[in-house]
Amino acid sequence: MLPTLALITPFLASGCAAALARRSNGTSAGVAGACTALAAQFPDQVLTASSANYTSETTDYWDVRSDANPSCIFLPSTADEVATAMCLLVSNDAEFAVRGGGHMNYPGSNNIDNGVLVALENLMQLDVDNATKTIDVGPGTRWVDVYDALAPYGLYCIGGRMKTIGVPGLTLIGGWHYFNNKYGYAMDTVVEYDVVLANGTHVTANATSHPGLFWALKGGAGNFGIVTRFRLQAFEQGLLSTTIQTYGEEQVPSYIKAVCDFVESTTAEVGAGAVFSIQYNATTKVVEPSLLGVEQSDISPPPRFSNFTALNSTVSISQLMNTTAWHNQLETPNQMFRVQFSHRTMKPDADQIIKYFQMWTSAVDEIADVAGLYPTFVLNAAPASAAHVAQSNGIGNVWGLEDKENWLIFQFSTGWADAADDVRVTSWSQRLITQMHTINQKKGLASEFVYMGDAGEWQDPWAGMAPGNVEKAKKIRNAYDPTGVFRFLNYGGFKLPY
Questions:
Q1: 461, 359 in Cβ contact below 8 A?
Q2: The whole model's pTM is what?
Q3: Checking DSSP bridges between strand 116-119 and strand 96-99, what pairing results, if any?
Q4: Do 288 and 343 have their domain in common?
Q5: Coiled-coil intervals in this record (predicted)?
Q6: How far apart are CA 400 and CA 403, in angstroms?
Q7: 298: which of 176, 207, 243, 496 is 20 to 30 A away, CA to CA?
Q8: How many angstroms separate the CA atoms of 167 and 219, rounded?
C-alpha cells in the first residue's frame, strides 16, 4: 500500500524538526556550520583537508573522475551517528554526498566538492542467521566481505561479481550477479532495510512495515534516505563450476553468436551467468574476447557454457571452486582510469551485435590518440527469468520489467588518463551508442531499459521503467522526504525527476 504523508507524520515528527523547515539548495556557510557541528560532536570522526587521511578518503573511488575535495568528511560508526549527522546537515542547509563502496562511476554521485562527504566504511555489520539463511549487512561492506561471511555456513547470495564492489550502491540500483536468471537481481533478494530518513528518523522497511518504501528501495537508488542495514536472503551453495576463456580475434563472430545463444536459451532451471567482454588495443590492434562463466553445477567444464568451451581458445581454465576462491581473484582496483560507461538494451541478435562491434572498433580508432585509452565492449544478459522473480514474488521492484523476453545489454566501458579528454571521450561514447540504439529502434530490436550501474551520467534510466512506477516512486519519495533533502542537498547520482 502506498504510504501517504499523513501515515508517516508520526515518524517525521520524531526526528529533527529542522529537517522539515529546509527550503534552500544549500549554502557554503551551511557547509562550514555542519562541519563545525560534526567536529564538535564527533571530534575523532571528522576529517578536513589538513587531516592525515583526507587524501586517501577523497580518492577511495574506482573512477578517477569521482575524486573531489569535500570541505569535511564524516565517518560514522553507527546508524545513530548517521541520524545525528542528517540532523546537523539539514539544520545547517549543507550539501552532502554519501559513499558506500565508491564504485559508481557517475561523478558527484558519491563525492562532492565543497560539501560534506558522509563515508559509511565503518558500518561493517555482517551477521548471519543460519536458521533463516539471511545475513544482515552494513553499508560499509564490499561483496567479498559478504561472501566470506556466508561461506562457513555453506551459503551464498546474489551480489557483485567483482569482489571490491560495495554492497549499498549495487543493491539499491538493481544488482547484476551470475545467478540473476534463477534468483533475480540483488535488489530482489533484500528482505529488510534499516533506513535513516532526511529528518534523522530511523525506520525499518520490509514487506509489512513501510511496504511502499520497501518497494521503492528496490531499484530506486539514493532517493529516499540512507540505508544503514540490508537483510539479504541467502541460499545453500556448494562448489561453483567456473570457466575462464580467452580467444583470438578470429573467434569474435562465433563468440558473439555463443553469447546470444546463451541469452536466448536462459531459463531459471540452473543458475548460470557470465561476464562477457571483448578487449581492443587501439595501438596494437589486438582483439581479445573473454568469458568469466559460473554455473550451479558439480560438472566441469560447466555445461551451460559448452558453446564457449568448444571454441578454439588461447586460455581455457575450467574448475570447481568454492565461492570465496572464485570471487577473491576478481578485482577492479581503484584509481586505474577515468571511466565512462554507455549502454543500451536490445534483442540478442548476433548479426547486429557483430556489426556494432565492428562499428565500435572503427570508432575506437578515431580516438586512438587519447592518452591511456582502455576500451572494452561488454555484453550482459537480462533474461526473462530474472524479471519473473519480481513479477511473481508479490513485491516487485521499481524497474517493473516484463518477464516475456530475454534481452542483451551491450556496453562501452572506456578508460583513459587525462581530464583534458573527459568531454571528448564522453561525447564520442554518447554519439556512438545513440547511433546504434536508433538503428535498433528502426529494426524493432530495441528496449528502452537502461541499467544505472552500466549507464553514463547523461543517460536516463527512469525513462525505461514500467509505466506508472516512476510516478509511484516519486510519491513515496515526497512522503518520506517532503522537503526534498535528497533532491536539493544530496543531489548527485540518478535522482528521480521532480
A1: no
A2: 0.96
A3: parallel
A4: yes
A5: none
A6: 9
A7: 176
A8: 13
